[in-house]
Specification:
Elements (H helix, E strand, L loop, with lengths): L1 H19 L10 H22 L3
Helix pairs in contact: 1-2
Length: 55
């Protein structure tokens, strides 16, 4: 469970970093990769909202 939460946190961090530096999101070809992309996308969206001052 801890590894899953750490993975989601890392995915969010990667997504936020990609949004901050305007980089495309990487997409690994496995189910865990797909979950990582979801976490990164959520981080990307959260960073976008924070950068625009909506939150």
């Amino acid at each position: 469970m801890t590894a899953a939460l750490a993975g989601l946190a890392l995915g969010g961090l990667i997504g936020s970093t990609c949004r901050w530096f305007d980089l495309p999101l990487p997409a690994p070809p496995r189910i865990t990769g797909a979950l990582l992309v979801v976490a990164m996308t959520l981080g990307f969206i959260a960073a976008d909202l924070l950068l625009e001052g909506r939150v």
